[in-house]
Amino acid sequence: MLVLGVVPRVSAITTSNWTHSSESDFTGKMESVVVSSRGELLLSRDIQKLVEQDPRFDVVYATLKLADGSIVFSTGPAGAIMKLSGGKLTQIYKPSDTSLASAMALLPDGKLLIGISGHNARLIQLDPDSGEAKDIFRATEAQFIWAIHVQADGSTILATGPNGQLLHVSPDGTSRVIVQLRQNNILSLMPLAEDMMVIGTDPDGLVIRINTKTGEWFVLYDAAEPEIVALASAPDGGIYAAGTSVVTEAAQAAAAAQAGPGRPEVAPDAPLHREPPAPPERPDDPGIDKSDRLPAMLRPQEQDEDGEDVDAAPVPPPVVEVAPSTAPSAGPALSPAPARPVEGSGGSAIYRISAGGFVSEVFRRNLTIHSMALSGNNLIVGTGPDGSIFEVRPNTEEVLMVAR
């Protein structure tokens, strides 16, 4: 018996190697994983949607988590305060006018302080259970409250605009101006040691250390971006400052198309070495439109030929001229500041200012930063216009997109 066998011809097989060095090297849909700026695949966080789109509000300006686990939202454009408890969303407060609820803080007894912005800024105390509200303070020279800090003695520090005032409000409602800067708005604040605080300004993007007792201040950094929208304390005693500019979707898409492979290099620590320019004087002519004294993200938008807003953003009530009662403080001698980044290097950045005064850049993207919070040694950053949330890891120089 003869058996014939046919042996197929086998071609040589060669191996291929791929090296991924950035998130742009990966394409396609990812599930349960994220790509770091170093091109590493990591397990993603668990993301849960707490609130579906609600017709009662279009934007959330601030959030607070209460002791019982419920969450309170300050919303716009009508200024309503919403409470999420047991999966149910209810409205617990709404101003009688069209004011903007622009800031919130939690008191030791569980009540809320709400910063109301409008023709005159005011501070109200709100019981999140009963919805009962009472006025604590009404400003005469401020129209916007952008941030609130509650002190141990029960008094509060308010970051306001459009006259660049930092206010101290006592528990009895009396107030004093800690300092008035030649800035339109103080957008962010963060406590340091006793009587010391860091604030962020608009439109010159200044990070300033200030003594809340004496009013003496010192410029720590003059950012390239016009607005310092958020501050956070680094575990080693340094400061993180988020400087932002408005970036349109078209500009963001163009920047993404031009971005090459690889991880952006983080600038090394650089000592402070130059005097910042003197902030410009504000015009005092009542006939001048003061809409430019709003933070850029909240200014009225341009309209197209059909009357529709271009890249529309929430707009608070119109600004009414308020004449300052005191001249802007010149303050002590300004600190030196590092040179500004090259134009076109990105719309927003996060800077780390060390305890010794050295500044380094830990994050830069062509987008708009809206919020920043410290989580362990890392930063969680909320951005627009596409709603991306990033985790920035300064110690390892990595950036991860947590959610979009």
Describe the structure.
This protein is mostly beta strands and 404 residues long. It contains 1 helix and 26 strands. It has one helix at residues 249-258, and strands at residues 33-35, 41-43, 59-65, 71-76, 81-85, 88-93, 100-106, 112-117, 122-126, 133-138, 144-150, 156-161, 165-169, 175-180, 185-191, 196-202, 206-211, 217-222, 227-233, 239-244, 348-353, 359-365, 368-375, 378-384, 389-393, 398-403. The protein has a 4-stranded antiparallel β-sheet with strand order 3-4-5-6, with no helix packed on it. A 4-stranded antiparallel β-sheet has the order 7-8-9-10, with no helix packed on it. The longest helix has 10 residues, at 249-258.
Which secondary structure elements does this structure contain, and how are they paired or packed?
Elements: E1 33-35, E2 41-43, E3 59-65, E4 71-76, E5 81-85, E6 88-93, E7 100-106, E8 112-117, E9 122-126, E10 133-138, E11 144-150, E12 156-161, E13 165-169, E14 175-180, E15 185-191, E16 196-202, E17 206-211, E18 217-222, E19 227-233, E20 239-244, H1 249-258, E21 348-353, E22 359-365, E23 368-375, E24 378-384, E25 389-393, E26 398-403
Antiparallel strand pairs: 1-2, 3-4, 4-5, 5-6, 7-8, 8-9, 9-10, 11-12, 12-13, 13-14, 15-16, 16-17, 17-18, 19-20, 20-21, 21-22, 23-24, 24-25, 25-26
